[in-house]
Design the sequence.
């Protein structure tokens, strides 16, 4: 699209299609507006009615999520979710995708993804305390894949390290389907006194509207439209649609904004992200049921010659919109002057419900806020089960010959990029700044102490695209179950989740079916586990040349630990402890890491989940941690029991010997995967107590062996199936990336 | 950076050195005056003599 | 005694240093803004880590030219004790208060991990409670931490005992594996000629509590506290 076409020198009737609106949507606009929109207005509608901003294909499905609960202060619909954590404090968190920008410009795409989610948190008045991320790439076996991977990791670190918020956890997976369309989902968690909560509302007629932070440039114009289309060969030419981040300015904006909120100087705050000023103006007015009068020429520009529509849709980073009472303006200006940040008054809140934009006195746009921000049609797309589902489900992994050399299989799994230690990644992130990180990256959940309260938050992010691909509904349930289980392993009670739903083109019935099924599965899991969804993000159109990614629902979960010093890690930290498995023996090689890494297949049916059983298991685990009855707890995930026990050995630097019952398929027992299973180590003296409690809780507890030595030895029915030195496992597990990324 | 270039298919790259390029617009009474201003700025802020070298070119522009 | 923690725009470990002094060591501490030209009374000034001014020109370069740095230089001239950590170390070299310079890490990547450093001069007010050659476990978290000094300067630093900390293994041996950033001669921290200004890339303020993985960093702060306690006793006499 040429600048001229965007600017709308063409007749509007030719313009809307080029701006990504359908004929039907155009008719709806005309109806809501009561006239034909001018080109500037059409640009505003186009960005706000893009999938990215309007959720027009997902809204009806998202209503399935339980969003309420006794702790919920603010559910979806605001910049971030807010959950009460006691003592007058709340946790504020959200996850968001930045997939398309990262596909064409990995460093800046990822950095601005981090910057964007950060603004969502402190916009609410919260002090950000941690970042997490969930990443997907093509296999790192080729130069392009490594370039994207390395660039994204450097970008996440580049922004997060500079603003001084620790990046404490995340996950990285590699599958061919993400080759052209990597996933970059960034999550931020903050904390604040509940009474400090500020909403993104343009309240109070006569209040002033001020824009602060970076100057406005041409970067990221129509970024949201770009994010709402499939990627193509041409996408690299869209690099100007990718925004550029300035983390230093971002850091100053946090400090200045939080000071302004602390001193109660602002009536409303809204960050400028997707769809820029248009979004901030129409959303704040629409939420408050007010109108705005804006003088666009007052916006400070980075370069000359920006057209009004460009100023309104630019996605220049590091900008905040404040609603401020006139008598507080001077004090607000003082704070921004101290940090040497520009702050300009653009206009004021009016009584109507119209956003009126003038440019040098002339009205360039006059639109109903609610129509632009929330009037887009809601679609109930056609849904059809894809043919591959039945084909792949029919595959029986046990039809494959058993793997004879289980030790080698374990080493192969430990060195598979999906499983191997991600230290190469997280050593590029400052995960300790703010000195609150009690458990950093590399465990099931990260744990952050809350200064002054004796409490801590646990945070985790999880999603398994392979499982969701084979069974989207189950995949959705498993994502919620695993993320919350990881919190429970650390001892924390899950209090809320945020979700990032990464899918293909929803206008294709098969893609929409995947989406709908996943959402239904997640919603069901949330209801049973009693954990509300308080915010999130949908990313559609993750396709390149008709090749879609795996449906990838990612769950960010936040949990509360009443006592910060009572948290549990994954490592075997002492010799002579009992190793037990908590949970059912219901496992499958379908969709497993073993099947992918050893046999090169993604097929079969993953083991199903008993959600009420999962709930019992998690409650039981939390009781064990609180009672200091277990020394370690590690969720069984990719690579099953074999990988979990190896990871616990490596993390704690202690070996283990397991005696498993005899089995016709030791490879299934070692590497099969199933939900609701946790490996724990227990002091022998505590076993009686733990067994008794397991019986009472109705949770299965199986003794598997002992910690100790410098080897991992596993017997099955008395015969040795694995015997590996810790050193050999460590080499396999820890050296892959430094070797591969040279 | 070299490996990134190679990743994008530029195989002929043998060495990459990264530096900084700064553009300044100065008001100066003469070329000599401009040169001494630049020297002064380079020495006091724009470069760190322990680890960096600098050179510069002057060009007259309309103001 | 009283610590001052200098805050530049973009400092982000100011909070951590402040927390350690106040909540772990129970000493008095105040933040000192970058725009201050006059200082109140402080016994020790800490220049904390972070990305002052985004480190866009060179790490610490702009911070070194802020008004408060003139006051810091005066304070140091009069024998005041100054501790620069990470970005604070970079700012002190940029300000000419410490010798040498810090360049991009050898890996060209940011590096956050636990390292071991050996105390090579334990006769400074910052290190008196450490044994000579004692090995401390502390984290590093930086992108520009590769210490450099030209050969003549390096010899001079060695001769004067100005190399205070070197990256080493757990047993105190300096080698390449123990060096997280390619620093010349494994140098992790240096002092000025008179020993009242030191800078180091590792973060002692992040190694002050067992819950965070190490409390080896306390030896630096406790040495400083001890230094002033001893002085007060002398003054009382």
Sequence:
């Amino acid at each position: 699209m040429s600048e001229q076409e965007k600017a709308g020198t063409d007749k509007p009737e030719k313009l809307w299609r080029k701006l990504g609106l359908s004929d039907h949507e155009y008719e709806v606009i005309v109806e809501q507006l009561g006239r034909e929109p001018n080109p500037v207005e059409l640009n505003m509608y186009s960005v706000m009615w893009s999938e990215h901003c309007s959720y027009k294909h997902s809204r009806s499905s998202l209503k399935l999520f339980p969003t309420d609960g006794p702790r919920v202060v603010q559910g979806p619909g605001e910049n971030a979710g807010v959950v009460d954590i006691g003592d007058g404090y709340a946790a504020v968190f959200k996850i968001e995708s930045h997939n398309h920008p990262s596909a064409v410009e990995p460093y800046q795409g990822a950095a601005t993804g981090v910057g964007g989610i950060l603004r969502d948190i402190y916009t609410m008045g919260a002090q950000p305390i941690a970042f997490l991320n969930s990443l997907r790439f093509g296999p790192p076996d080729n130069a392009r894949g490594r370039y994207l991977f390395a660039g994204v990791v450097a970008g996440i670190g580049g922004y997060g390290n500079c603003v001084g918020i620790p990046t404490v956890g995340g996950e990285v997976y590699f599958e061919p389907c993400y080759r052209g369309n990597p996933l970059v989902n960034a999550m931020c968690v903050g904390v604040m006194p509940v009474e400090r909560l500020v909403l993104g509302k343009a309240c109070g007629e006569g209040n002033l509207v001020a824009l602060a932070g970076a100057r406005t440039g041409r970067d990221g114009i129509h970024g949201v439209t770009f994010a709402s289309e499939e990627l193509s060969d041409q996408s690299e030419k869209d690099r100007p649609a990718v925004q550029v981040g300035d983390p230093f300015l971002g850091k100053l904006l946090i400090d200045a904004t939080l000071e302004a909120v602390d001193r109660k100087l602002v009536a409303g705050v809204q960050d400028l992200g997707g769809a820029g000023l248009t979004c901030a103006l129409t959303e704040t007015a629409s939420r408050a049921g007010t109108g705005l009068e804006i003088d666009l020429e007052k916006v400070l520009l980075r370069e000359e010659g920006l057209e009004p529509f460009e100023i309104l849709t630019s996605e220049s980073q590091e900008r905040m919109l404040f609603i401020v009472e006139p008598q507080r303006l001077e004090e607000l200006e003082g704070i921004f002057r101290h940090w040497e940040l520009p702050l300009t008054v653009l206009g004021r809140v009016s009584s109507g419900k119209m956003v009126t934009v003038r440019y040098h006195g002339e009205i360039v746009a006059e639109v109903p806020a609610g129509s632009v921000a929330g009037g887009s049609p809601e679609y109930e797309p056609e849904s059809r089960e894809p043919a591959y589902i039945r084909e792949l489900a029919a595959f029986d992994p046990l039809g494959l010959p058993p793997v004879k050399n289980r030790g080698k299989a374990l080493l192969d799994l430990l060195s598979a990029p999906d499983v191997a230690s991600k230290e190469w990644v997280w050593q590029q992130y400052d995960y300790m700044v703010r000195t609150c990180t009690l458990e950093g990256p590399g465990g099931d959940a990260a744990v952050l102490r809350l200064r002054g309260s004796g409490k801590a938050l646990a945070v985790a992010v999880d999603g398994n695209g392979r499982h969701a691909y084979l069974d989207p509904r189950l995949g959705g349930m498993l994502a919620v179950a695993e993320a919350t289980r990881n919190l429970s392993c650390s001892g924390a009670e899950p209090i809320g989740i945020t979700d990032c739903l990464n899918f293909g083109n929803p206008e294709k019935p098969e893609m929409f079916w995947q989406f709908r099924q996943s959402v239904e599965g997640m919603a069901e899991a949330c209801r049973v586990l009693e954990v509300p969804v308080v915010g999130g993000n949908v990313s559609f159109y993750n396709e390149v040349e008709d090749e879609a990614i795996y449906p990838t629902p990612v769950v960010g979960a936040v949990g509360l630990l009443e006592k910060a010093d009572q948290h549990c890690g994954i490592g075997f930290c002492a010799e002579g402890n009992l190793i037990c498995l908590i949970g059912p023996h219901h496992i499958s090689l379908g969709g497993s890491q073993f099947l992918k890494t050893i046999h090169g297949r993604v097929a079969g049916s993953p083991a199903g989940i008993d959600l009420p059983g999962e709930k019992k298991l998690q409650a039981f685990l939390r009781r064990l941690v609180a009672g200091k009855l277990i020394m370690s707890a590690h969720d069984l995930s990719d690579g099953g029991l074999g990988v979990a026990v190896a990871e616990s050995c490596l993390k704690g630097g202690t070996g283990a010997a397991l005696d498993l019952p005899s089995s016709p398929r030791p490879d299934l027992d070692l590497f099969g995967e199933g939900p609701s299973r946790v490996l724990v180590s227990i002091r022998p003296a505590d076993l009686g107590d733990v067994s008794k409690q397991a019986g009472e809780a109705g949770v299965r507890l199986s003794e598997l062996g002992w910690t100790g030595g410098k080897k991992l030895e596993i017997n099955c029915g008395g015969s040795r199936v694995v015997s590996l030195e810790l050193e050999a496992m460590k080499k396999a597990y820890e050296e892959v990336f430094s070797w591969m990324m040279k | 950076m070299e490996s990134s270039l190679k990743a994008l298919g530029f195989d002929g790259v043998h060495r990459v050195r990264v530096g900084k390029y700064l553009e300044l617009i100065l008001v100066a009474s003469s070329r000599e005056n401009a040169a001494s201003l630049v020297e002064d700025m380079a020495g006091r802020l724009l470069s760190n003599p322990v680890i960096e070298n600098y050179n510069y070119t002057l060009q007259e522009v309309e103001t | 005694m009283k610590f001052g923690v200098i805050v530049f725009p973009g400092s982000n470990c100011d909070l951590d240093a402040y927390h350690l002094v106040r909540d772990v060591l129970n000493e008095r501490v105040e933040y000192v803004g970058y725009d201050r030209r006059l200082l109140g009374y402080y016994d020790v000034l800490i220049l904390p880590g972070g990305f002052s001014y985004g480190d866009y020109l060179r790490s610490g370069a702009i911070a070194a030219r802020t008004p408060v740095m003139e006051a810091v230089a005066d304070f140091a001239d009069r024998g005041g004790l100054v501790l620069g950590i990470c970005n604070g170390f970079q700012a002190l070299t940029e300000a000419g208060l410490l010798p040498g310079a810090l360049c991009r890490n050898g890996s060209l990547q940011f590096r956050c991990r636990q390292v071991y450093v050996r105390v090579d001069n334990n006769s400074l007010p910052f290190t008196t409670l450490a044994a000579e050659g004692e090995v401390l476990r502390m984290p590093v978290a930086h992108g520009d931490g590769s210490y450099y000094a030209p050969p003549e300067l390096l010899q001079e630093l060695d001769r004067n005992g100005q190399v205070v900390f070197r990256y080493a293994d757990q047993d105190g041996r300096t080698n390449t594996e123990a060096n997280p950033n390619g620093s010349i001669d494994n140098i992790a921290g240096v002092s000025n000629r008179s020993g009242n200004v030191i800078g180091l890339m590792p973060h002692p303020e992040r190694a002050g509590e067992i819950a965070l993985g190490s409390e080896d960093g306390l030896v630096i702060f406790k040495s400083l506290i001890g230094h002033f306690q001893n002085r007060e006793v002398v003054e009382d006499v």
Residues 2-236 of chain C form a domain with the Rossmann fold fold (CATH 3.40.50.880). The two ends of chain C are 18 Å apart (CA to CA). Residues 66 and 185 of chain C are 31 Å apart (CA to CA). Helices of chain C lie at 14-24, 67-77, 87-94, 151-159, 218-236.
